[in-house]
Design goal:
Elements lengths: L1 H22 L4 H20 L5 H22 L1 E13 L10 E13 L2 E13 L4 E12 L7 H11 L2 H30 L1
Helix pairs in contact: 4-5
Length: 193
């Protein structure tokens, strides 16, 4: 029972933090940095306590339930995901204490009726004092749809290399399309009477 209460408190704290994050205006770069830092801290704290494969299975079940919750909340479902990591070697003597890691990510999914595929690269640069990450390349592939307005959101997100902007725009676009569809259905039914 204590474990469930602790999990509920942790989820409540996460929801409160997400609400604060949504309410505070900030730049896209700051959003990306905070999200990456938060995910990195969660991963490090979670991976320290695995004493057995049973703990790992339990953790995997917890992550799957969180993924289902997020998919229900946002309407975005991730079907496939892959990542390749490459450590870049430093050739200059001045950069010997700097570690650079290039991560290549590829994922596909859908948001209700819209299917998408993302390919992006993240360059992580770590020196003795800090760790910084930046998206160096973003390619968004969308299935052709009847919504030509969506291409504006996609091209703007690619141009700015902003994943958060893409997912937010996609979520709200689909939500408003659904509202629009229901409104037209309402008036269509009203005019037939």
């Amino acid at each position: 029972m204590d474990a469930q209460q602790a999990e509920v408190r942790a989820l409540e704290a996460e929801i409160a933090a997400l609400r604060r994050a949504c309410e505070e205006p900030r730049t896209a770069g700051e959003d990306n940095w905070r999200a990456q830092k938060s995910l990195r801290e969660m991963y490090q704290s979670d991976s320290e306590g695995w004493a057995s494969s049973k703990d790992l299975r339990s953790h995997l079940g917890h992550l799957e339930s969180e993924l289902i919750f997020l998919s229900t909340l946002t309407g975005i479902s991730i079907r496939n995901y892959s990542m390749k990591t490459e450590v870049l070697t430093n050739t200059e003597k001045t950069e010997k204490s700097i570690t650079k890691v290039l991560q290549r990510h590829r994922l596909s999914g859908n948001c209700q009726m819209i299917t998408f595929q993302l390919e992006f690269q993240i360059l992580e640069i770590q020196n003795k004092e800090s760790l910084s990450s930046v998206i160096t390349d973003l390619n968004i592939i969308m299935e052709p749809t009847e919504y030509s307005e969506l291409s504006e959101f996609v091209s703007r997100a690619e141009e700015r290399r902003d994943l958060l902007m893409f997912f937010r725009s996609l979520h709200f676009f689909v939500e408003w399309c659904e509202y629009r569809k229901r409104t037209f259905e309402h008036f269509k039914v009203g005019s037939e009477v």
